[in-house]
## 1
Amino acid sequence: MRRLAGGLLLAMAALFLVSRHLAATQPAWGFVQAFSEAAMVGGLADWFAVTALFRHPLGLPIPHTAIVPRNKDRIGDTLAQFLRANFLQPTVISRRMRRLDVAGALAHWLTDPEEGAGGRFRQGASKLVAQVLEGLDPQRLGGMVKAGIAARLREAEVAPMLGRVMKAAIAEQRHAPLLDGAIRWAAKALAANDHLIRQMVHERAGSILRWTGLDETVADKLIGGLDRLIADMAEDPQHPLRLKAEEGLDRLAWDLQFDPRTRERVEAMKVELIANPAMQRWLDGLWEAARAGLLRIARDPEGAMQGQLGDVLRQLGGTLTGDPRLARTINRFVRRAVVGIAADYGDGIVRLVSETVRGWDARTITTRLENAVGRDLQYIRINGTLVGGLVGLAIHAVDVLL
């Protein structure tokens, strides 16, 4: 387009020279001369205006030219503030997010057949997700994910949640298999370690008991009594010791919810667990496994829709379609998440845009902006040439008529 605009200006210059030579002998060429002369003026004026935006015309340091390079820092700051004021305001995002049915789009994506719009959308979205996952720094992104999970775990108070889970399990008798397992483990431990009990009785018995062999009898009686006690606990759900154990579990559930000391101890254990290198390695592995799984699904979305995973995803899509309340909940969650991101990281995004533009050299920003709007700028030159010529033609026609 730049060559077309420049060629048109040169054509008008050549036409002006020819028409000026012929107008003296043939008056009709006066119209052509007026058109080409005004077209040259219009084309030159618009060439100067367009060029002055990005550089000095003909390399001359004319005042108020090369506007973009001289003001690139101000342009970056203005662009950043424009983004902040018009796109990253929580109220603006919340208002616009209300118009989006994310749950409906997700349901359409999951349930539409392969050849439908959902299938095409699934292919395009999956390709974009794969490119994003492959383009981001895995270590840095993994560190961010791990840090985010760890931060959420630190913020969440786990003791009350554990207490509520235990309370519900006890109320529904789901703790009984745990007690049965503990009793079976105690029976096996007793059978495997009876020699330790016999040794303890033998060492603590007096010399007379050892000489008469009564220590063995005491040991047999002790082991037999413990064995019968464990068997009775296993057979009788109302055994006093079993009820005592249930009472202890119920007390622990209450302490986890309401006792400050118990909650503090659990929180301290949680913090130590999160800081443990083994836990950090587990989080690393969790993120890598999740990333690899996402990449597999993104690279082959139709394959992911086959088998059990596909059935689960289609069922989820059907649930979203048939449950308006769940859809509203998801839309509200997505809206709040996006608004929260804008509120938390909006200033950081603004600084990133501003600092990025400030970091560009003048040639870079000039080239990028000129390439972005270059065709329209050259159309301005073309339109200026043609409109100028028409105005000059009209003025000459009026002058002839008068």
## 2
Amino acid sequence: MKSVETPNHGTVPVVGMEDIVRAHHVLREVIVRTPLQRDAVLSAKYNCEVYLKREDLQVVRSFKIRGAYNMIRNLSAEERERGIVCASAGNHAQGVAFSCNALGIQGKIFMPSTTPNQKVKQVKRFGGSNIEVVLTGDTYDDSYEAAMRVRDEQELTFIHPFDQPKIIAGNGTIGMEVMEDLEGPADYVFVTIGGGGLAAGVGTYVKTVHPQTQVIGVEPLGAASMTEAMEQKQVVTLQKIDKFVDGAAVKRVGDLTYDICTRTLDDVVKVSEGKACTTILELYNENAIVVEPAGSLAVAALEQYKDKIKGKKVVCIISGGNNDIDRMQEIKERSLIYEGLKHYFMINFPQRAGALREFLSDVLGPDDDIARFEYTKKNDKENGPALVGIELLNKEDYEPLVERMKAKNIQYTELNKDQNLFNLLI
């Protein structure tokens, strides 16, 4: 693998076409060549040709196996004998576990104690007797620190989730498959960014074979670490992130992935967590496709590019489909709030008989529905404010609702507009 001098990081390895081609031959042993499907619904909606690269149909339901297997498969005999270690809260752990089982290598996988049991079971199922799952700490950072200590103590090889050349080359095989399966080159390729390993690999291949193709990276708004790095022209660590889009919620992108992405991406856009939720529901309801929050980002970004992609050939990489069904209620809730269809109020009803009845008959519109109602006091309920959640049929019904409350002299606080109160009460 070649190296080059860069202004920011000195000598760094270069991931090239030959590395991706080699990874492609290695991965044929285990991966599914996922379909590239034209999506009729999205194509009609955006007046262009939209194709979905379905990594949600991969053997571990995400692209992560590509990088993990490629790296582990290329370890020396001595490194295999010593074993490997990784830290992950989800898809990377599954890719590493599958690879250990397939190659007969022993591995330790550190995961936060807060990881849902369903994900832990999946990792154990893919890894079998070849892996040991260690639950420690509350966050990925806690697990990472523990994994690094064990790496040093036991001289294990650490399998990074995104910032290693073999990982990036394995991910780049997605770009190779996309460009081979399309009839003619793509005009746009939208790809999720977490730590940057997927975008770096796909961007490298696509720009090598067809530099005119626009490669657009997509980050969650609450964890836009690549955007921040590019603005500051150096890799930075975000102090706080929204962890909802867990597959792409990364405080710090990789040094190598940043260097590659600055040379291969034409743009990086941010998608709000609420928009990601709306996209998850639309893909399920309209296409029967189950995606995780990170897997929705590429499709969600099309709205921001709707004027530029008209009449174009567009590819969206669905990075994964490991969505826990227990999260669906929260996903629906976030979507409704983002779309302006659900609003929460703290309401002080007038202290007189019939006040609540009047609210129902005179304030609520014909299509408005009370989705939540709670008195905030356990005792003397009628003399305390009530938490009221109202679901609308159309977002345009919101202003008339507020005007009717004002007309009835109802005292209220809009919780959707007060993040601290919203987080405390909802």
## 3
Amino acid sequence: MHIARTGLGVAAATSVAALAVTALGTAAPAAVPHTLAVPAVAGHTLVHGVSSPLSSEQCQAKWHINCYNPLQYRAAYDLNALYKKGVTGKGRTIVIVDSYGSPTVQHDLDVYSKQFGLPSTKVKVVKWGKVPPFDPKNADMTGWAGETTLDVEMAHAVAPAAKIVLVETAVAETEGTTGLPEMMNAEKSLIDHGVGDVISQSFGATENTFPGFDKGDFSSIKNLRYAFQDANRKHVTVLAASGDGGATDLQMDGKTYYNKRVNSWPSSDPLVTSIGGTQLHLNDKGARLKPDSVYNDYGSGGGGQSHVFTRPSFQNGVKSVVGSRRGTPDISMSAAVNGGAWTYSSYDPTAVGWGVVGGTSEATPLFSGIVALADQAAGHRVGNIQQALYGLYAHHAKSNGIVDVNDGTDNSYQGVTGYKAVNGYDLASGVGTVDALRFVPALAKASRNH
């Protein structure tokens, strides 16, 4: 998650840590290292508290970044023609998982929707565990509340008629026994109860930080896969942000980046569709001024080879790129801060108003909306989309609504050389991005064949 918020004419370049310490068991001994489940990355707060959204031209003049609203995204991703056909996500449910959540999420979504002339929707909140009372002075809580706001508003922007279920988990930094296991337990419970067609996860932990990794023991990750295995059986689509550290990611302290190429889980899991990041170049009507680039400004779209998972069969067609490993991302959506999304929030009484947010934790809920549209178009859950996605890419990609990102930009970050966006699949953008008018019906059709 990268945040660029505006303050009444005052710009500040401060770092917001949104870290929650987790361990990988319900009774981990003190000697077991903790792994951080964080919103895809800790972000930068540039400005905050704007009374109303500005145009991209105004954002450029004030803060030297582009800023986009949902109406621009709808034009950019060719969504309006789908809405006119009645494909709005109706009858489908998006599950969003965030620690702590936000106490003002419904109010904030209502304000956001009204601002842009969208119908609002009811957010059903499920509290998993003893979620502590919200403390606006707690940086962990406000970081996750910002993530929650972004997730809910972006999913709604793309699939306005879809139901949203927000799962708030009780990550507590002092306990070290909750976090990723609790998130997975919550997801499995909802799947087993038939709640949700697509799950959006805007969090991740570097594979290298899991207990046993250094010894080649990957059981601490593999023992957490039960929710995804359950989702695969029940035909629920699972998405995860590829991260905002380019080809590297955060070490155990949550602040320092590895000086080598690493990957993060759950994005690296073959049962999960990994969502990378692009930078859009739009005018105020949402028309492209030039093709999409790889997100690389205040963060960079995560991508590379997993050190835990070998190449899954659905990536056999891109083995010349991924080699013998699982490669991420699979597909990408808007994530750059320079080209970030307007969001509205009021969970922090000192910063009520509008801000601009980016990161692959923006891209992931955007794509969850796309999946909800495909579910509606298909008349059933499209489920695990990996085989269908790579099949659409391999055969008539353009007519299937897959748009290549190939402008030569890359996801190098923090001194670690990344990967370039080239023709076809790459480890910076995956198969590319989408033209929803073509992609949604193509995915719906392909899902019937798998």
## 4
Amino acid sequence: MRDYLLTLCVTAAVTYLLTGPVRKFAIATGAMPEIRARDVHREPTPRLGGIAMFFGLCAGLLVADHLQNLSSVFELSNEPRALLSGAALIWLIGVLDDKFELDALIKLGAQMISAGVMVAQGLTILWLPIPGVGTVALTPGQGTLLTVALVVVTINAVNFVDGLDGLAAGMVCIAAAAFFLYAYRLWYGYTIEAAAPATLFAAILMGMCLGFLPHNMHPARIFMGDSGSMLIGLILAASAISITGQVDPDVLKLFEGSTREATHAALPVFIPLVLPLTIIAIPMADLVLAIVRRTWKGQSPFAADRGHLHHRLLEIGHSHSRAVLIMYFWSALIAFGTLAYSVHSASMWIVLGITVLSAIGLVLLLLPRFTPRAPRWAQKVVPPRYRRRRPAQEALVTEEKLPVPAGLHGATAIGNREGLTDRRKAGTPS
């Protein structure tokens, strides 16, 4: 675990330290597109944040290669090199898109080629465990098609959800954390060496997101752009492919009996199909709804609009930060709820806890203008918007919000406002 934490910290540090210079480079090269109709930010913001994230990936892989407990991943498997090859290609296309706005079909072709590069180097789905059937071996053609489809869908799901400050990086970080715990349990809990690459990928992905988030939280100083969103989407897909298609469910041997019975009985413990999908459930739902919505209107599925889930949260009254936190909440609930169920499927407390948290999430959705206040002992550690104001501060805020009558400007307006404030304090009707 210490080696993974070291790799995570190095990746986060390199990403964090490089994001500042990358921001200056993006401004100098003019990678600051004009405000579009679907954007929610008000000022042009530099992109190309994926450059820092890519070098964070390289640093994480380099450090892991020199650690004693992780170097075996590079010696026994070609998956890290396959990941780096595919990531470099998709990152390069993303950088060009952030600068020159490439066509959607060109990006789609690059995503498929990147997936094909990883397949050619061995990162592909070999078999699928299907409940009630058993382990089904795939032909090379079937494995290639399924791998490319999973990579393309995951990349676009993450890209679609990248619409608010800190949203994509935070949701992918939550998904990577759940996936890391899942893969780490398979490796060390069941001594399955084939789960080692996925564990490493998830740790590096967490570091990339954590290092970039301080620069990307609202109000964002830099965006990751397609160079970052497509990159983290590909790494997330690579982790899922490594677990789903490389680890043979039969090596668990948790239950005796036929292959069909063993696979069905071990499903709550080994969820190779469900977990990779649940960690991107929210982006995937947004992707499907966007395709249906645009196709129904006669538009291209790749046409941009303001109908995404995060846009709808803003329209019903949620603030920018609150909408992001709500998306974080649902992502964490789905990912970690599935993870908990995979460990103790027979526990009713898990189902009850997920139900209660879902109810809390629904309540939060119905209270878009409710601003929670932190207790007094936590006043110094929470953002200013959640602190309790003193009576003097409340009066000052009220005074600042008093309306200025039409036609009054300058000193007249100020004097009128001061007089109105004095009359309200004295209890005299205005």
